[in-house]
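Practice problem 4.
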């Protein structure tokens, strides 16, 4: 009995999810890789993996595993302090710059999709990824509502021009999966259109992967209580009011509808070629670090070889500056 209790303590708290009975294979983003991939080691920097830890080759992601999933926060995790968060984020930013240089050097094509409920933390996570890299390599796509012309087009047509070319990493802040989520729940498409989309999209993503695109799909999972808290912040905080759209308010009382279409989306589109990775986003700082670390483990990269840059000597003083009437701005600080 003592041995059993010890095993239970070592295993930690395990969350249950009624969707596991449907055979869904969605993998939690806290894993270093899906399936039987190695667990991340604390003393190992992202991108510096042993031979046995190499991420799958471009276009050939590992099979999705059956890791336990939950929409609830992990009770065994202490919140990160601001100092610890900044320290870890700085390390990951260095690795993201290395990834950027490698993608350009090798002409890789990377596409990252972020989906989740309103207030799940997609925007903040994307900002954490992109704040120290080049916007010419890391391109963020956040499309507005379709125009009347776009509504008359083939559905995926408005997304295709934004897919990555060689040397680019494209991040979709919401994507073609709008049809499986908000459009379906809010009545912007018919049920037949939504079901047709769910049937076709695995083939669409297979074409992307076969063309050499490394496709990563993340779902940020937030509890109803935390979502309410964040939406209320958007009402009260003048810095965040722009984040609250009329659609957010209309969608607020449709939690169960969104849960149902989310589950159907997972069942239809969580494939071995393009699996979904779920990240618990109750804690914004933790989910940002977890996702960055995970995506670094999914795209093979190395430091680009090159000589260390040394600034040359320069001469100043040959040109005598006049005193033009510069219009300096006020300096109250």
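Answer key:
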């Amino acid at each position: 009995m003592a041995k059993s209790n010890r095993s239970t303590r070592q295993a930690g708290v395990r969350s249950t999810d009624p969707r596991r009975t449907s055979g869904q294979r969605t993998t939690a983003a806290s894993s270093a890789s899906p399936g039987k991939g190695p667990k991340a080691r604390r003393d190992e920097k992202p991108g510096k993996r042993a031979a046995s830890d190499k991420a799958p080759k471009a276009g050939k992601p590992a099979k999705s595993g059956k890791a336990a999933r939950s929409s609830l926060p992990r009770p065994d995790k202490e919140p990160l302090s601001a100092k610890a968060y900044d320290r870890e984020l700085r390390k990951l930013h260095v690795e993201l710059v290395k990834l950027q240089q490698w993608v350009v050097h090798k002409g890789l094509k990377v596409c990252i999709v972020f989906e989740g409920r309103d207030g799940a933390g997609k925007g903040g996570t994307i900002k954490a990824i992109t704040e120290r890299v080049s916007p010419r390599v890391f391109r963020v796509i956040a499309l507005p509502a379709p125009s009347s012309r776009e509504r008359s087009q083939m559905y995926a047509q408005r997304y295709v021009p934004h897919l990555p070319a060689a040397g680019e990493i494209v991040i979709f802040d919401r994507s073609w999966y709008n049809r499986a989520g908000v459009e379906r729940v809010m009545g912007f498409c018919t049920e037949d259109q939504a079901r047709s989309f769910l049937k076709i999209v695995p083939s669409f993503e297979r074409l992307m992967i076969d063309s050499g695109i490394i496709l990563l799909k993340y779902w940020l999972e937030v509890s109803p209580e935390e979502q309410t808290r964040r939406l209320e912040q958007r009402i009260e905080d003048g810095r965040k009011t722009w984040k609250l759209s009329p659609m957010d308010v209309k969608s607020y009382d449709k939690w169960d509808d969104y849960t149902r279409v989310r589950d159907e989306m997972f069942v239809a589109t969580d494939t071995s070629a393009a699996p979904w990775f779920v990240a618990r986003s109750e804690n914004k700082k933790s989910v940002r670090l977890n996702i960055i670390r995970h995506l670094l483990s999914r795209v093979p990269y190395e430091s680009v070889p090159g000589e260390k840059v040394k600034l040359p000597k320069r001469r100043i003083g040959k040109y005598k500056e006049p005193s033009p009437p510069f219009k300096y701005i006020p300096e109250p600080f």
